[in-house]
UniProtKB/TrEMBL annotation:
Keywords, in A-Z order: Membrane, Transmembrane, Transmembrane helix
Protein name (Swiss-Prot/TrEMBL): Cupredoxin domain-containing protein
Top-rank taxon: Bacteria
Residues annotated as transmembrane: 6-24
Domain EfeO-type cupredoxin-like: 14-118
Organism: Kangiella aquimarina
Amino acid sequence: MNLLVINIIGLALIALIIYWFWIYKPKNVRAKDQDIIKIIVEDGVYQPAHISVPAETEITLEFERKDETPCAEMVIFPDLDISESLPINKTKTIKLKKLEKGNYQFHCQMQMYKGELHVE
């Protein structure tokens, strides 16, 4: 009987892993002209992590770091040559100039926290 319980728990964990890595799609936030997007850094993720932005629009991102882990300390936009330190429990504002169409990744220095700007 114990073997049956262990197998059920194992299958449930496999299902959870499949859902988290392959099926789950995080909410996409759509920015409007001159919009401010607030991004919470907490529990190993950026919330929201996927942001749609109109092309040729200036956007302001406000990062609020609630996670004290060292990995959450920085946010890096490699394609935009931006690297900013995020203070704990304070808002860090990053103003982005008009961007051309494309996808712009952002992440922590270890690339464990990940997000994407989709400029359309």
